Backbone:
């Protein structure tokens, strides 16, 4: 086992037992101190954030041959992402050692804590990278089937291509926002079944989508596909994703070129990127694939991750959020390696910082569905909320919170949360 | 009339009568000297390129209050694009004056020519901007109808939404390349009608798409739509676009989320961005819109541009390219202002440097169709080439060249060309 994943490791930083961020995790992000100052990369540990720019400036990465000076100087992780796994491992080993209990260079050094560690509550977590392109897959068979049944009937639920390739569409990178950013209810063009002509109205069917996404590390040259066996070397880590959707807008606009304005107004991601290295102990098999995919999509070894997922909703009237969906990323039919191999099979180039999301993750049972569209079955089975009231789609003031974690033996590798509150539409 | 558009203006630079780049044009781009040195912004005039970084460094923009120092220091136009029209006009007036015949500061100054002007043949024209997001519309009614007839029959040719909103999809920004970049024939997943299962093969239906695109200037805040009346202020200028497509891949993959790998392997653009200011004398009305669009899409004044377009094909066997399509951007049903207003109606933010393309432009007659799919009517009416041979789709070694220009009185405002040669698929 990679010693940085040792369940016995302890940090000199106090990490509460249920924390998502023990020393085995060490997720990367970008933050800005609330007191002011430039944005910079950091690593989350417990309730603290380690300032990577300051650490680099004080020589903390000296001896790391694969980390050129200035790797953490920019207000994004793109330079670090582009370096690839050997450099990522070097950084991870360095940080794991530095944060370990009893480590003489830092644990007992008051000025280390003073200069380099900040309370997470005192910083604003931003987007971890400049996202060049954002792609959204459609890799949950249960989700695709549910949506297919609702819109095309049981007999044509799954399109014939679905089991042969990871269906996807290009999304909008400019409107990817970090957790906590409010989401304005969009106005859009819809056409109700009983209307003669379309209308421009605030969407009446605002929905969330429970997804996970991955950030690209080193890219490929235009014209050269990434083989499935090498795909994971191009993946830095994973985040939680909420791909907000306006279902009524989507229904009217999506033929024949797919969703456009119904998806381009906001996509929320969790700000701390959990590395594939930290997730390694939680790799597991995805669902069996039948028919067997074409050779360029055949992956040796386990391609999924056992990440428990939860969606919580809190209306204005409620005191606390309530879980409305419990799922797991292992339900995804297509793995991230298969997604990336397919994405690039035509020679499409990917670049450090690109974001690729899974599509809505729905599990096999009703309580594991990843959207209100499915949970309330297109408005026909409203969800009852504990504070009273029901939901078919999101209402103004609703907060949606996605959380995710791997359950280790005595510790969790967590993603924190991916949260957004719905603001009323503009007049 | 804006004096920079005066047809009587002459430059001290020799500009041949048929040139696309007289002093009335002054299109912006980014170039790298073939002899070496960093990429930098420039302006094209006749067969020369004016080095904007060098001009700025030598004080050429002194007195231009709206152009902060360093506007042209980066290897892209993004900073300039973000400044907006008042700054663009200031730069245009300065450049027009500087390049005018008889202008004492430059015309007779040998060292000005020496230091600031280079032969276009001695530079490599690159992408004009860092393109954050790329969107492709579907705004030619004739094209949408032709494709609809081929794939769904005459009765359902145009989807009901098409006349109510500018249909579009998000494209892939990473694979946008400048004119001259070879295009590798992609391998992709297809499923022939008579095949039991899909295959991975080099595409058998590689096609071009004749399009025009625009580059975004100042962006909007997330959550705040751009009103149609203000949309043109967010548009810097136009380029020619070839959105290469693998039709067989597209047909198999596109349902239900739209084209993905069939379009993500290459999009070629012309490198010199022709500004809306230079195109102002060539504004014209687009086709009448019936039904009348919703108020957020109603544009006062002329929204189209009279740009003559030509697609030329040259096979390996041919000595010279031959025109296979002649069209005009005025045939587009939806205007750029309508496209941008619709794109942002949900609050989607756009950013300086974003690229938005029109979708394939097909005109009313057979010779004005903008793709081989339509010109050879899905392979049923092969095109005869002058050197012998026929085409239904592109073959290895074929060069596709799109050209476009506005025909003024005694001069042309041109776009140069958008060219690419098909390389054989990798093994």
Residues:
């Amino acid at each position: 086992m990679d010693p940085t994943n040792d369940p016995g490791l302890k940090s000199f930083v106090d990490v509460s037992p249920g924390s998502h961020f023990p020393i085995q995790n060490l997720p990367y992000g970008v933050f800005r101190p609330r007191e002011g100052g430039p944005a910079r990369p950091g690593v989350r540990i417990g309730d603290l954030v380690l300032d990577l720019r300051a650490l680099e400036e004080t020589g903390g990465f000296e001896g790391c041959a694969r980390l050129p000076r200035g790797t953490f100087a920019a207000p994004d992780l793109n330079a670090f992402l582009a370096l690839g796994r050997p450099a990522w491992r070097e950084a991870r080993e360095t940080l794991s050692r530095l944060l370990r209990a009893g480590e003489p260079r830092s644990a007992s050094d008051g000025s280390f804590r003073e200069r380099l560690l900040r309370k997470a509550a005192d910083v604003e977590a931003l987007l971890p990278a400049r996202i060049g392109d954002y792609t959204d897959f459609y890799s949950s068979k249960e989700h695709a089937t549910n949506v297919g049944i609702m819109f095309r009937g049981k007999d044509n639920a799954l399109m014939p291509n679905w089991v042969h390739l990871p269906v996807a569409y290009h999304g909008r990178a400019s409107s990817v926002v970090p957790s906590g950013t409010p989401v304005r209810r969009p106005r859009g063009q819809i056409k109700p079944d009983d209307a003669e002509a379309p209308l421009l109205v605030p969407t009446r069917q605002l929905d969330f989508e429970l997804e996970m996404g991955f950030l690209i590390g080193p890219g490929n040259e235009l014209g050269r596909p990434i083989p499935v066996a090498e795909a994971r070397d191009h993946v830095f880590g994973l985040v939680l994703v909420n791909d907000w959707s306006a279902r009524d807008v989507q229904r009217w606009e999506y033929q024949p070129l797919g969703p456009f304005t119904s998806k381009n107004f906001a996509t929320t991601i969790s700000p701390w990127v959990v590395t594939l290295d930290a997730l390694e102990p939680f790799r597991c098999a995805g669902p069996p694939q039948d028919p067997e995919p074409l050779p360029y999509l055949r992956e040796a070894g386990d391609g999924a991750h056992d990440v428990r997922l939860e969606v919580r909703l809190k209306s204005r009237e409620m005191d606390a959020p309530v879980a409305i969906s419990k799922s797991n990323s292992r339900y995804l039919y297509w793995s991230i390696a298969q997604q990336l191999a397919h994405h690039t099979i035509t020679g499409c180039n990917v670049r450090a910082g690109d974001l690729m999301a899974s599509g809505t993750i729905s599990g096999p049972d009703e309580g594991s569905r990843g959207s209100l569209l499915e949970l309330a079955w297109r408005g026909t089975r409203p969800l009852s909320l504990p504070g009273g009231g029901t939901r078919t789609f999101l209402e103004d003031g609703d907060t949606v919170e996605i959380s995710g974690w791997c359950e280790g033996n005595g510790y969790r590798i967590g993603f924190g949360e991916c949260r957004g509150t719905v603001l009323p539409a503009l007049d």
In short: Chain B touches chain A through 65 residues (CB under 8 Å). Chain B has nine helices and 26 strands.
